Amino acid sequence: MEWVARGLTPILNVSDIQESFAWFERLGWKKGWEWGDPPDFGGVTSGDCQIFLE
Question: If we measure between CA atoms, which residue out of 10, 22, 23 comes closest to residue 54?
């Protein structure tokens, strides 16, 4: 049986997660979720694609 990757989620190290959410939203991406108080990890989505922000 051959295993094949069906997806990949990159993780970007960012200096300001809220500003990064805003930057991606200006490009048409949507904030998918955030974690922490204050948030220090989250993800943005576009269709079936996702990028984690850390």
Answer: 10
Q: Give the number of other CB atoms < 10 A from CB of residue 23.
A: 14
Q: Is 23 in contact with 16 (CB distance < 8 Å)?
A: no
Prediction pTM value: 0.88
Confidence of residue 37 (pLDDT cuts 50, 70, 90): very high
Rounded CA separation 17/3 (Å): 34
C-beta of residue 9 within 8 angstroms of C-beta of residue 45 = no
User: Locate tokens 């490009």: which residue?
Assistant: 27
